[in-house]
Amino acid sequence: MGAELNAASVRAAAAEIADPQCAVDLARFFQVRPGGYGEGDEFLGLRVPQQRAIAKRFRGIGADEVVALLDSPVHEHRLIALFLLRGEFERALRPRSGPDWDEAAGWVGLYLDAVRRGRVNNWDLVDSSADSVLGEYCRRRGDIDVILAHAADGDLWRRRVGIIATFAHIKHADASVLLSVAPLVRDDPRDLIQKAFGWMLREIGKRVDEQTLLAYLEENAARMGRTALSYAIEHRTPEERAHFRALR
Fold first, then answer.
1. pLDDT, position 2
2. What's the whole-number mean pLDDT along residues 42-62?
3. Cβ neighbours, 10 Å, residue 6
4. How far is residue 34's CA from residue 141's CA, in Å, rounded to a whole number?
5. First-last CA distance in the chain
């Protein structure tokens, strides 16, 4: 008999493969120290492939159980919850009869509530969910207002959600959403915002159009933070990198 589809069973599955030494390493990596961006987080010591495997075992879990996992103080419980949420959202978009928009909207609403309540509160949690859930929903519905609202929010994680959500559009050769987000985030000095913004700019050059990236950099490199610029030009030629750095 398979495990019951509930939060308690997910927690038990995670506990079975917990690795205390790995937990120490992850806590250091995700800066759980006082003043770190992950302050107060708890870790069991699971690697991402292990968490994905657990999520696969519990496909079909209910929304209330996902919320229970998102409310856990344990980092891995929340990441597994986001993998589960993403899976259920994606299934809602591809039934044979066409997307079930009511169900999809329900999962997106659950996600946005978790973001608002501070349960999607580290870079890996954001990056594993923002574009594949919020970004993809907005792309398909043709409405980016919620992305712009998150990018304009001063909260670190909500702003990063707004930036990373644009990746769904970039993957479909649309740079316009990130370019709309850019004025809202360009001057944010926080490292995790700088990295996210520079990463998405780099992806424009890779997946959309090099000239769009280069034109943006010509106009904005002088005002960009060093970290965002470094990420954005990582794959450019040495001559291009020197040129854009000289504009600062």
1. 57
2. 97
3. 16
4. 41
5. 63
Sequence-distant (≥ 6) Cβ neighbours of residue 85 within 8 angstroms: 66, 107, 110, 111, 129, 133
pLDDT in tens, 63-100: 999 999 999 999 999 999 999 999 999 999 987 778 99
d(CA 232, CA 234): 6
Cα atoms in the 13 Å half-sphere on the side-chain side of 121 = 23
Q: pTM for this one?
A: 0.95
Q: Which two tokens stand for residue 34?
A: 């006082």
Domain count, the chain: 1
For residue 74, what are the β-bridge partners?
A: 42
CA atoms of 82 and 30, how far apart (whole Å): 18
Q: Which of 101, 24, 87, 25 is nearest to 51 (CA)?
A: 87
- 89 within 8 A of 138, measured Cβ to Cβ: no
The boundaries of the domain holding residue 66 are 1-128
Tell me whether residue 168 is in a domain. no
Pair 121, 129: CB distance under 8 Å: no
Query: Residue 14: which CATH number?
Result: 1.20.1660
Token digits for 54?
Answer: 């657990």
Could you tell me which of 86, 169, 170 has the C-alpha nearest to residue 120? 86
In a domain, 220, yes or no: no
179 located within any domain: no
Task: Please determine, for residue 248, whether its predicted confidence score (pLDDT) is greater than 90.
Answer: no
Evaluate whether residue 49 is within a structural domain.
yes
Residue 42 bridge partners (DSSP): 74
* CA 158/CA 147 separation, integer angstroms: 9
Contacts of 40 (CB under 8 A, 6+ apart): 32, 73
